[in-house]
Amino acid sequence: MRAAIAGASGYAGGELLRLLLSHPGIEIGALTAGSNAGTLLGAHQPHLAPLAGRPLLETTAETLGGHDVVFLALPHGQSAAIAEQLGPDTLIVDCGADFRLTDPAAWEHFYGGAHAGTWPYGLPELPGQRERLRDTRRIAVPGCYPTAVTLAVFPALAAGLAAPDVVVVAATGTSGAGKSLKPHLLGSEVMGSVSAYGVGGTHRHTPEMEQNLAAVAGEPVTVSFTPMLAPMSRGILATCTAPARPGVTAEALREAYELAAKDEPFLRLLPAGQWPATSMTLGANTAALQVALDERAGRVVVVIAIDNLTKGTAGGAVQSANLALGLPEELGLPLNGVAP
Amino acid sequence: MRAAIAGASGYAGGELLRLLLSHPGIEIGALTAGSNAGTLLGAHQPHLAPLAGRPLLETTAETLGGHDVVFLALPHGQSAAIAEQLGPDTLIVDCGADFRLTDPAAWEHFYGGAHAGTWPYGLPELPGQRERLRDTRRIAVPGCYPTAVTLAVFPALAAGLAAPDVVVVAATGTSGAGKSLKPHLLGSEVMGSVSAYGVGGTHRHTPEMEQNLAAVAGEPVTVSFTPMLAPMSRGILATCTAPARPGVTAEALREAYELAAKDEPFLRLLPAGQWPATSMTLGANTAALQVALDERAGRVVVVIAIDNLTKGTAGGAVQSANLALGLPEELGLPLNGVAP
Amino acid sequence: MRAAIAGASGYAGGELLRLLLSHPGIEIGALTAGSNAGTLLGAHQPHLAPLAGRPLLETTAETLGGHDVVFLALPHGQSAAIAEQLGPDTLIVDCGADFRLTDPAAWEHFYGGAHAGTWPYGLPELPGQRERLRDTRRIAVPGCYPTAVTLAVFPALAAGLAAPDVVVVAATGTSGAGKSLKPHLLGSEVMGSVSAYGVGGTHRHTPEMEQNLAAVAGEPVTVSFTPMLAPMSRGILATCTAPARPGVTAEALREAYELAAKDEPFLRLLPAGQWPATSMTLGANTAALQVALDERAGRVVVVIAIDNLTKGTAGGAVQSANLALGLPEELGLPLNGVAP
Amino acid sequence: MRAAIAGASGYAGGELLRLLLSHPGIEIGALTAGSNAGTLLGAHQPHLAPLAGRPLLETTAETLGGHDVVFLALPHGQSAAIAEQLGPDTLIVDCGADFRLTDPAAWEHFYGGAHAGTWPYGLPELPGQRERLRDTRRIAVPGCYPTAVTLAVFPALAAGLAAPDVVVVAATGTSGAGKSLKPHLLGSEVMGSVSAYGVGGTHRHTPEMEQNLAAVAGEPVTVSFTPMLAPMSRGILATCTAPARPGVTAEALREAYELAAKDEPFLRLLPAGQWPATSMTLGANTAALQVALDERAGRVVVVIAIDNLTKGTAGGAVQSANLALGLPEELGLPLNGVAP
């Protein structure tokens, strides 16, 4: 199998390449970029030694054509046009938001402009979702926050242990914002400081979380979501709480999460008493989580750690692509974090 | 006025000294320590150049006696014995937890052992509290998290705009854990990683938050509190949300916070649209906060940033001591953060 | 005295304002900016609460005129034109490079373009320099690296204990590069990573170091200088070594440094055995240094820590301005670092 | 092949396990520890999901016996006794210092106590060394700093382009100090700060560098070495300079380094103009380096980046073990860094 990567000079593109470099079933084909087209990859991804001399081509149907799989790591709104030109037989894995939402009104409210459509959602751990990804030729890779929050909350909702009124506060590393040159992303600003942004229900990932969780809960789910920027490059740590249903016990809660994690290679319920740290999952496709019942406050509390670039973007993309290509789901995906 | 500092080799002690070194109304007297007694301060606080040669004495009634004010920055449980020996005329400012809680049962549940009593609570911004601190000879300095959370939430509860069912997720710098030598506090562990701890209603600061907020709300308040350790030395960023009361508007919410911050020198409501970052308050006694109404989720969301060692400990201690000593409340307390 | 600050939205400008806010002898007047003119200071320096509502004016002779002192924190090459228009009676303190070098050829080689001239050099600790700064109306503030390296090396050269062939490797925080929006300054790039830049004698601060040290040594001095970008916002730690002259002893070396630091309020020779860390000087105008004789390698080794924005830029500027204005040299300048 | 790891709860042990978990030719056998024996690995290495439930045994000849290869990641001085008991047929790879030095006097001066002996030195890139490692049953893994400095400097000395009088200043991440619980290694102390230590020719890695370089140069080599602790968990960036021999050109220098890197899988000479950052090599067995001729100062300047735990310890250990076991040298060793 040969893969092309569009947006190879960005952070998502770089992580896709890092994973594919040690993927035994996928060979790296064309690399394309936007304004960086015409330069060498090594100028942008100096950590990828074997690809340093590879040129970045223009992102066109010609350069991306002729591959078995095309990974799109493009700014929002650019995927539909490319996808149309590539034809129905190419597996297209879109790391952008364009095809994630099912509700056009939600798309318009949060992203603006016309809704491009909906593709199979690349989160195999979501009940029933794995089957939908086998043999598809189109995959919408989840957002990084929705990946974390959905994996953290769905077991409690699926088991009817929590009310569908979820409060999420999540810290992310700065790579989640990409390589965009904005003053608040400068090292001088972010080091030694945690800051809030997108507060008050305004973050674009909110409807995606609600959509995923509603599908599991079988009823509408409200998410109050507050993201924070933390002084680290990678990682998301999300704290998710919801009112416990009457009579819920700590044992029932743990059982529900054990069941959910049971056969999932990348969902890791930590031993009781151990709480997630993003370092556990740095560079890995693993989600590490832990659950507690706060009996005083009457709430279920779930904390989850993922690497926003791996399980939250590029790893999730490769995992779903493996399914669609008929390869073993875990192929080429690291289980272990790089720590300390 | 002369001040003695017990626990001068720790982080709270160091911050007290940094503030007192530029305080025009308080002179630094005896410095004492526990296991570090007999060494020089410069070995432990090398950033305090003018005090580098000062010896650390044993923490006893003799070494602490004869000062106008004694700041205690001791491990929990050691303050009562010292306080008794110093007599009623010395102003004692306890940065520990011993005298914060009013409910002996809450003390026993969260700290264990016998409750030592309750002293006037050193948070002048709390309605009515400023007057109680004038001329007192005993002050219980609030915990760092309760300082942040109380300042963030009390205006909404006092104005009846939010229900008394609060969810708090707060990131702290590592200095909040003190200088204790534990593996999870090593630089190698904390850099590049955010982790959760004290989840599920188990953190000791929870009853203190509830006590403060219940006094303002005039009814019991439940706090679901989840702390996180962030890769920075200083700072707390707390996200606090509670259900909005029916009919609450964004305007009413902002007005309530403007009113609360109006005459408070250290409570800074940011301009609309600007959200707090801990760097805004690094080394300062300022709390920077912002509020929003999440109309989709029906929740009030408040985010607040403080420096855990300054407003959250030593600055709060000096602010309250100023009141008790009849000095201007703001004397010697920095308003501006050190940034970037 | 009233001061205007040109370039108030940048890092050097922000640090000048932070210092002046607690300076009892200088009042803050006009604030000007380049492309940020027309916005409020609070959007760029949110840590400076009392100035948040102050407007940023255009940088012109009109807005800067009528002040006793004008601090220029502008890009290289813009100071001469402004200075001419402000007239000879205004104290102008230039934080840029334009007037630091005496040798036009060195200027042209390292900066390009025509040499603007030479102003009295704002490093009062340099032998004989303090007197030159009293009553001057023009001050060229040293570069951050030259401040560190000159203070570290001049005592050994002045005492004839080291040969004039100096090797310097220095780590700097990212604020040294200012707020320029370049990919390698993004938080994602700098956190968790140390990198080299300006290697091989190409860094513009090299001739400034050589100029300072040659004046002290009375002979030409060669500096091999390698800077590194470290994952912190502030601070320079410079390691400076030079061949020891024959017969030099560790005692003679320490004596030379004790003599040099003796009456200098901001030059702090650490006790034997303690080595500098940048945290000792964070936010302070202090330089902390230590010296050793490596007898195996036959070299003098000096390590020095400063805050690049304080002693290395804005603090040095205020210190020299104090002298020129007839104020006490130490007025308004913090001695103590903010740590941990 | 089955491998036992002694010292599995430490940082070197953890990195060995991370590498071996994806090594197709070596299976992980017994894991042992010192004071952590009796606990589960997951308590100490939570990033290694598949091994979380593995017990830590006592470090004895019994638990380590019966494996093809034993990796020792023990405190200095403990390897000899274990090695004796394991017998001559087991491949023993010692990550400690015990068997690195050839000169007993240097050992006694820098480490104290009796010299244990000398084992083949595990740096295959050193001229002639690769052959010595094939089929050996004993390997002394180089120290992290000597790995970086030797790889950086040997090409210039081997080609006669630099004088044997080397000045090295190197920044390291905190994991180089291991998990020892010391105040200066706390996150609160190291974040936001660079500090110097082991200055003046006192660091134990100095004689090891000199030994390696003298062997290549064919004459004694002096190294003036100054290490710095940088606010990152992993990585070494070393700046190495030495006087250029008369007549040396930049072209000749680059040629010498191209020749040295030519067939070395883990030695990566960057394209001209690109300088190393530790992020390029994070988690990888690669050394990234660049060389320049400073014509003004007459010095060769080489900057190199490695991951202290990978190429600097565990990766170097596995690379040499591969050779000794007759496996492909690169087997199981990552080439690409995890970035950003």
UniProtKB/TrEMBL annotation, chains A, B, C, D:
<dbReference type="GO" id="GO:0005737">
    <property type="term" value="C:cytoplasm"/>
</dbReference>
<dbReference type="InterPro" id="IPR058924">
    <property type="entry name" value="AGPR_dimerisation_dom"/>
</dbReference>
<dbReference type="Pfam" id="PF22698">
    <property type="entry name" value="Semialdhyde_dhC_1"/>
</dbReference>
<dbReference type="InterPro" id="IPR000534">
    <property type="entry name" value="Semialdehyde_DH_NAD-bd"/>
</dbReference>
<dbReference type="InterPro" id="IPR036291">
    <property type="entry name" value="NAD(P)-bd_dom_sf"/>
</dbReference>
<keyword id="KW-0028">Amino-acid biosynthesis</keyword>
<dbReference type="InterPro" id="IPR023013">
    <property type="entry name" value="AGPR_AS"/>
</dbReference>
<dbReference type="InterPro" id="IPR050085">
    <property type="entry name" value="AGPR"/>
</dbReference>
<dbReference type="GO" id="GO:0051287">
    <property type="term" value="F:NAD binding"/>
</dbReference>
<keyword id="KW-0055">Arginine biosynthesis</keyword>
<comment type="pathway">
    <text>Amino-acid biosynthesis; L-arginine biosynthesis; N(2)-acetyl-L-ornithine from L-glutamate: step 3/4.</text>
</comment>
<dbReference type="Pfam" id="PF01118">
    <property type="entry name" value="Semialdhyde_dh"/>
</dbReference>
<keyword id="KW-0560">Oxidoreductase</keyword>
<comment type="similarity">
    <text>Belongs to the NAGSA dehydrogenase family. Type 1 subfamily.</text>
</comment>
<protein>
    <recommendedName>
        <fullName>N-acetyl-gamma-glutamyl-phosphate reductase</fullName>
        <ecNumber>1.2.1.38</ecNumber>
    </recommendedName>
</protein>
<keyword id="KW-0521">NADP</keyword>
<feature type="domain" description="Semialdehyde dehydrogenase NAD-binding">
    <location>
        <begin position="2"/>
        <end position="134"/>
    </location>
</feature>
<dbReference type="GO" id="GO:0070401">
    <property type="term" value="F:NADP+ binding"/>
</dbReference>
<dbReference type="GO" id="GO:0006526">
    <property type="term" value="P:L-arginine biosynthetic process"/>
</dbReference>
<dbReference type="InterPro" id="IPR000706">
    <property type="entry name" value="AGPR_type-1"/>
</dbReference>
<keyword id="KW-0963">Cytoplasm</keyword>
<comment type="function">
    <text>Catalyzes the NADPH-dependent reduction of N-acetyl-5-glutamyl phosphate to yield N-acetyl-L-glutamate 5-semialdehyde.</text>
</comment>
<dbReference type="GO" id="GO:0003942">
    <property type="term" value="F:N-acetyl-gamma-glutamyl-phosphate reductase activity"/>
</dbReference>
<feature type="active site">
    <location>
        <position position="144"/>
    </location>
</feature>
